[in-house]
Amino acid sequence: MNHTPLSDEELVQIIRENDQEEYSEIIRRYQRKLTHYLKKYIYDQDELEDVLQVVFIKAFKNLYGFNIKMKFSSWIYRIAHNEMANHIKKNLKSPVPLDEVEYKIVDEKIDIDQDIDRKILARDLGRYLGSLDIKYREPLILFYFENKSYEEISDILCMPTSTVGTLILRGKQNLANIISQDKKYDDK
Amino acid sequence: MTINKMQKLEDKIMSQIKGGKIKLRSKYIFIAEKLGLSSGFVLSVLLAILFFNLAFYCAKESDNLAYLNFGSAGFLAFLESFPYLLIAAMVILAAVAGFFIKKSEGTYKWSFGYLAIGLIVMVMLGGGILAYTGVSERIEEAAFKNRMPSMMFRPFLERGIDMRHKGIAGRIAEIGETYLLIETPRGVEKVNYSFKNDEKFEVDGFIIAIGRREGDVFVADRIKMLAEDEMPMIRRGIHRMIGPSRPFSPPLPPLEMNRHDFLFMK
Lengths: 188, 266
What we know:
heterodimer, A: mainly alpha, Rna Polymerase Sigma Factor, Chain: A, Arc Repressor Mutant, subunit A, 2 domains, 9 helices, B: alpha+beta, CATH 2.40.50.140, elongated
């Protein structure tokens, strides 16, 4: 028999009305994804776990606040985003750690500048992203590394879709500026 | 995060849920929150509409717009008598409405510009429609009779009949060689003038003048006769303070007599 897995929204409905233990399925579905997302901002592993735990607890407590007609993934990412922002407020800027696959995505998706030495880019992109203003960094990370659409980013960051597009475009330009300035400095 | 650590986190959270340490917040809290936001938005928009309507009403019914009859010379008096307080209240309430709507679900998708334009259009349209209901006049009447809840609007409406330094408006009570005694919503005031006026003054006629104050006397640079219904708020103010038009009104008090004594004498 072919079982179609329940959607997140259906699962939320069940948790709210019948079985709270089903929340473990939500945790299983989102633990890896949210860890991946939060890793871009929180370098320390213990701190990341603490934030992640808070995210899941807050999401559970506020399940009745979730509108079933919306996408659950955007909603839980928004909670994660808010918690991460609170965490960042308390801490200084730190580089964004990227893994090998992500460097590849950057190489393919971001056509920052033809002249930029891609080796330097790959080596230092985490540092460059870290020095980018957070308002540009957030949509860039969600779009390129979390594979979120403009619509989803708009739901996560609570801003109009057109603003998301503008921020991504400007973020790319700023990133290109930072990288080319850095390259010039290195050449000297 | 390793698989082991992930399992640990899941177990940790689930044990707290099963143990009842972490509970779902009641759905009624969220319903109340939504209701609060919606009613806050509706209330602030309605009040913004009302204040816009009152501002428009004050400008139209008081001497404010009439000063523009003097052209650029009347501009300072126009600015002085402008209902700033009502406009400021309207702007604050519109901002509060904007805050409520921004806090509501899904509205973050609207751009700030469209939201602001939408709110302004809504307030102006609502205010325009309200102007036909005559509600402002009823509020004014009740406010000056100290009836609740309109009484709360009194500080805002008093601006329409307050003393100005650059202009004056009122009903002629006495005509002298170089002066006029006029009845204003504040009592009787003297207007001096030293120019030859083209218009013929008449007792009980309404005038508006621009100039400056010198002590208790207003020194007019220019004076215009106006129809009574061009400044209904001033007319009503005079009626409240002094009474309807003569010939049955009592003799005018001397200028130095204060408002209380004058009213008591009536």
